[in-house]
Amino acid sequence: MKVGIIGGGQLARMLIESSIDTEFVVLEPNLQNSCNDLNVQIINSNYDDIKAINKLFELCDVVTYEFENISESVLKDFKNKLHPNLKFLEVSKKRFDEKNFAKSYGLEPVKFFKINYFKDFQSLIEKNLISFPVILKTNSGGYDGKGQSVLKSLEECVNLDYANNNFIIEEVCQFDFETSLIVTRSKSNQIYFFPTPINKHKNGILWESKVLNKKNIINKKILNKVKNLLTKENIVGTVAFEFFVKNKKFYFNEMAPRVHNTGHYTIDGCNVSQFRNHILAITNRKIIKPKLIYKSVMINLLGEDIKKDFNYSTINKYDYKKNQVVEKRKMGHINIFSKNKNEVLKNLNLASKILEDKNE
C-alpha cells in the first residue's frame, strides 16, 4: 500500500521512518526538506497546486498530512482517501470553531469569546464577562507561541489589527500543569491511548514532555468523551488533545488532527510509536495497544541546540535535517529514557546543563 503525505517536514520524516514496510510519496514545495535523504518519491510543488494534489492522490491508496493549513478546496474531491478526515482538519484550523466543537462533546475549555472589533471588548466588560489580563489569540494560524499575547488593559485593545484579523480571547488559567492525550483510532474502531505526558513550555514553545508513570493521568470521563468524539466523527489515525489541569479538573486547550510534538517520546519510550500506529490505522491494519516500556522525557532542540552532542546510551538525538538553522525553530529533539526513574532525572539534569552551556 502506498501512502501520500502532504508536507515534507519533521513529522513526515518520522512517519516514514516508523514504517519501512510502507511506500511513501511526499508533496513538498521546498527542495531542501526533511525527507530528502529518505528513499521516497517527492513531488516538489505547492500544497494548493491542483495538478500536484491530483497526482498525489492518483499515486497513493491513502493520504495524510503533517500540518493544518491546507486549503479545503484542493482536498474536497478526495476526502474519501484523506485521513484524518476533512471535517476534523477544517474544524482544527480555527480556534473558535475548535473550542465549540470540543465543547459539543463535553470537553470544557476555559472561558473564551470571539473578538472582531474593539466594541466587542467594551461589550464584554460592560456585561462583566471578562476581566484583565486575558490571553489574545488570532482565530486562525499561529503556532509555537506565534499569534498570541497577553492583554493587561482595555487600552491595549484599541490598536489591534482588526481589519486583517479576527481574534479570540481566553481567561488566564493558573493551571497546575499541562498534558496532552495522544490517541489512535483504526478504521475498525480500535481506540488506544498513549501514556499521557506532562508538558512544559518556554516562550510559548514546547520545551519538555515527561512521562514517568504508566498510569494515565487523564480521568476516564475525559477518555470516554474523546472516544465518543472519535467514533461519531469517524476520525482515523493518530491525533492529539491538549488540556490544562487545575485542581484535578481538565480544561480543553486545543487539538491537532495529526501526530503531535508531545508524542515524540513514544519513539523510544513505548512498544509502538504514535507514528507507527498512525500509519497502521490509515492503511487499515490492526493498531497496537501502547505500553510504556521506558520512563521518558522528550526535549525539543531549538536553533543552535541541534549542534550539541549528548553522548549517553539512554539519550537518543533526532535531527530533522532542516536546511537552515533558525533561532527558536524546532531543529530536532532528544529522548531520554530508562527503566529507572532516577536515571532519567539524572540524565535530564545532564542534558539541561549541556543545553544551558553556550560554549558547548
TrEMBL record:
Entry annotated with the keyword Protein biosynthesis: no
Protein name (database record): 5-(Carboxyamino)imidazole ribonucleotide synthase
Residue stretches making up the ATP-grasp domain: 99-283
Highest rank taxon of the organism: Bacteria
Keyword terms of this UniProt record: ATP-binding, Nucleotide-binding, Purine biosynthesis
UniProt-listed InterPro entries: ATP-grasp, ATP-grasp_carboxylate-amine, ATP_grasp_subdomain_1, PreATP-grasp_dom_sf, PurK_C, PurT/PurK_preATP-grasp, Rudment_hybrid_motif
Pathway annotation: Purine metabolism
One Gene Ontology MF term: ATP binding
Entry keyword annotation includes Nucleotidyltransferase: no
Species this chain originates from: Spiroplasma gladiatoris
PANTHER family: PHOSPHORIBOSYLAMINOIMIDAZOLE CARBOXYLASE, PURINE BIOSYNTHESIS PROTEIN 6/7, PUR6/7
PROSITE patterns the record matches: ATP_GRASP
Pfam families: ATP-grasp, PurK_C, RS_preATP-grasp-like
BP term (GO), one: purine nucleotide biosynthetic process
